[in-house]
Structures are given as C-alpha cells and as structure tokens.
Please model this.
Amino acid sequence: MTPKIRTALLGFGLAGSVFHAPSMASLEQFRLDVIATSDPERQAAAKTAHPDAAVLTRQEWARTGSHENIDLVVVGTPPATHVPLATMAIEAGCAVVVDKPFALTSAEGDALIALAKERRQILTTYQNRRWDGEYLTLQKLLAEGALGEVRRFESRLERWQPAITKEWKAQATVADGGGLLFDLGTHLIDQALQLFGPVAGVYGELAARRPAELADDDVFVALEHASGVISHLWMNLSVAQKGPRLRVLGSEAAYVKQTADAQESQIQAGILPGDTAYGVDPEACWGTLGRDADTVPVPTVRGNFTRFYELLAAAVLEGGPVPVDPADSVATLRIIEQVRASREAARADA
Model:
C-alpha cells in the first residue's frame, strides 16, 4: 500500500476548498486529517466535503501538540499569517506548502527558506498557475519554436468585481498582504520569470479604483528580461470588457488566447480532479497561432492543478524535487518590492 501523507489544511476559503483539498482528495498518497477554519459556514462546508477530516477552529489548531501525527501542513490562510504558520509547522517537524504570496517581504521569504533548510524540512509554494492550460500550451509552442524569437509577452488576469466580498480583503492594506499585485500579480510575474528568465528592468503602475479598496486593484507591470523579451502584465478587478488572456508576439508568428483556464470554475461547478472533463478547454476557447488572418487554432493542453500535489507526493515520499522552488517565489517578491518602491519614489518626486 502507498504510505499516506497525513495532512492538515489551514484555511477553507477559495484556496483551501477549491485549489488544495480537491487535488489532495483525488490522490491516494494524501490523507486529509485536519481542516482548520474558524468560520462556521466554512466549517460546515468542510465537514460535508471531507467527512473523514477533523474540522477545528484556528484556535484549536494552534494549541500545543496540534502538529502531532501530521506530516504536511498546507497554509491557505490570509497572507499576513503565512510566515508565522509556516514557521510553526517547520519547527514542529512538518513539510509545508505555503499559498501565494509566499511571504509579505523577500527578507521574510529568505528567512523561511533558511529555517526549512536548517531543519531539513520540505518547503514549497503553491504557484498553481504553472499548470494552467494556456500556460502549458505556450510552453509547448515555445519548445517547438513555433513563434520564432519571442519579443513580447502580454498576459492578463482581469475581472469585473466591483464589490469586495471577503472580509479580510476589505480590511487588508499592503502591509497585511492586501491588493491585487500580491494576489494575481504573484501568478503573472511567476509565469513570466519561468518562461523568459531573470529581469533587468521593472516598471509598474498601481491604482485603487474601488471605493473600499485599501491597497490596489488595478495593476500594470512591465518587465525587461535579460533575454530581451518584454513582458506586459495586467491585473484588474474593474474591467467591463476583458482583453486577451495571452498575446505572445514572435519574429515568425503570434499566439493569442482570449479566455483563461477553467479549472477554478470547473471545481466550483462540481467538475473535480479525476473527472474526464476536468481541465479540458472547449474547442471554441482554443487560442490561435499565426499571422493576422493566416492563423490556425491550437488545442489547449489540458490544465492540471493536481500535478503540483503529484510532484509534492514524490518529494515527500521519494525524496524528489519540490514542485515549486520557494526561491522562485522570493524572486517574484523582489519584483513586487521594486514596483512598490518605484511608485513611492514617483509620488515623492511629484
């Protein structure tokens, strides 16, 4: 029999209920022993979805001895709690997954990595958008040389969300890890770095459009990669008409994908990892490759968030590499810090 990784999931909001728990539930290597959330509605949802797990409040989880008989702690709580909870788990001898943002600062991230190395514990970051269908498709096209020399990478995660629905987000400032640059920006910057390498120059624009927003909800970031590629990244929650999810321009062709990966909406609709339809992009949503009118549709590689946990199981049980090197997430945090520093400097000069 495959050994079970005894797991505690901290938080059962969108991250815990949609991204983490369904993937673990679909894999025989994991056993979800504990779910910690203090929200009564989320407690009820956790008990319904995962009846074999002990559902605790955050206070109950924090008591002495809570990490006993646990191999893995998944931190899916608000950003300001990530480093304290991960530190506690590492010191208790557990492997740790930290949802994005990995930390509030790159210095905190470096310190957490150093602690895990000192204690010889597995530490990784949940950068699940590396397994989006359109990202995997673009990786495939780049490996094939289908675009020629890539010159510009345009990537968007845009939504129409005029109201802030989560209490912690309504109260979160930048110092608390609030704002879209920490949220969706962490994904887009990570993807750009993975695809096109280190960055030599950074430019950013930050705005808060919604009246209740305390951080930022309209963000643009430009990255000048050492490879010569220019990345333009948009994150916005006040978009009445969305732009293309991806537009990648090369010397020979372009790849354009209008719609985003559907795994999140599929899970919310009950199409779970393991289902035949999970991660499959309808033909009507495929991107196109070519020049102007001379383009062809490109089947979207099947999205697979569960791959993160497959690789994590191999790391825990077999000593394989972690699915995401947390140093990659620190590199993303450094870019976020550069964007914020440049905006503060611009305001000071105005």
In short: DSSP finds eleven helices and 14 strands in the chain.
